[in-house]
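Suppose you are handed only two things: the residues of a chain and a line of SMILES describing zinc ion. What would the bound structure be? This form records exactly that question and the answer produced for it, so the two can be stored side by side and reused later without any lookup.

QUESTION INPUTS
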Amino acid sequence: MECTRCHGFMMKELVYDLLENDGQFYVSGRHWAYRCVACGKVSDWVIEQNRQVVGKAVPTDEQTRNAEPGAA
Ligand SMILES: [Zn+2]
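ANSWER OUTPUT
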């Protein structure tokens, strides 16, 4: 797999999901991701999904309140 930022080599590695509660960290899960050995960019399916969501227009709270009922 090639890095989209620098075209470096990306290695598959196990990533741990951490939760913090009152200063204590807990491992809540783990999944596989790709990390670029040249620039350090990390990519997995969650990150890619979030990048696609950010690219779409998200209405603000005010726009949602002012929208007419039934209007899309
Ligand atoms: Zn890279």
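WHAT STANDS OUT: The mean pLDDT is 83. The pocket of zinc ion is lined by residues 3, 5-6, 8, 36, 38-39, 41 (CB under 6 Å).
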